[in-house]
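Before the break, one more example. Copy the sequence into your notebook; we will annotate it together after we see the structure.
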Amino acid sequence: MFRTRMLGWLLLVGMLLGGACRPMAAAAEESAPIRIEADRMEASQKEESVVFSGKVEATQQGLVIQADEMTVFYERPPEAGATVAVNRQQVSRLTARGNVRINREGWIASGDALEYFSEKRQVILTGHTTVFQKDNKVTGERIILYLDEGRSVVEREGTGGERVKGVFFPGNGK
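Here is what the structure looks like once it is written out:
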């Protein structure tokens, strides 16, 4: 019973960023607008990126990502002479650095850095990562979320890093 609860809890970590456990809701979220606020924004057509810095907050429906800096990498639009345009079809990768915090439906994750790969639909949260849901807590150096599979992996870096730790309170997940 405990193992089933723990595995279910870890699978729900994947839902934190829109995993495939709820395909209809995930599809609706993907088409919802992404709103980003920051102290500064710098776009580079040459680098095909937009850098947001200073108290960055990105929101999409119930998902909130906060960081010191966020960079959105995009694929160049196919039409010649097109200006910088960032939308969900063109975003290829997103990175966030410094005091990364993700909040969604009562789930909170934090770490030093985040990378999102849109083609793989994979999120990697690194650097002293922690995921909370009520009193339940999982920590590790790296969390990989496979969004389409509804699967997550929590691991330590190398052999000298901190071991993965979990504290679960049966009955609190209700």
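The longest strand covers residues 91-104. The chain has one domain: 2-167. Try to locate both features in your own notes.
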